[in-house]
Amino acid sequence: MPLRLTGQQLAVMRLLWDCGELTVADVQERLHSSPKPAYSTVATILGRLEKRGLIQHRQEDRTYFYSAAVSETGVVKDFVDRIFGGSTSELVSHLLDSRDLPLSELDRIKQLIRDYEKTRKPLKGKSRK
Fold this sequence. Notes:
By secondary structure, the chain is mainly alpha-helical. It has helices at residues 7-19, 24-30, 39-51, 72-84, 88-98, 103-119; strands at 55-60, 63-68. The protein starts with 6 loop residues before the first helix and ends in a 10-residue tail after the last helix. It is elongated and about 50 Å long. It contains 6 helices and 2 strands; from the N terminus they run H-H-H-E-E-H-H-H. Helix 2 crosses helix 3. A two-stranded antiparallel sheet has the order 1-2. A hairpin with a 2-residue loop joins strand 1 (55-60) and strand 2. The protein has a domain at 7-68: Arc Repressor Mutant, subunit A.
């Protein structure tokens, strides 16, 4: 599932991942862009995302309720698989090499790894990616 999304499409996907089910008017109200997009623009974005299989809708009377058809986790996993060959360590290495991280961010990453190691049991005979 190659995923190329415009900024507005990604913003809509994030809303649907965070909120679950929304109408066109709900999406329009929650988008934080200036100027606020027209109702018809939001409806077009939703239609295009649905055509690509990324979202779905159900109808109640004359109102469409849209929800994500793919999970945020699935999209991220697909990205890591396609760009970094499924290697989490390659992703982290790329992020560390490509930007100046504030110490607070680096400390947060270290804490996430420590927390992960405490709760995750190692797989027998396999190295972690």
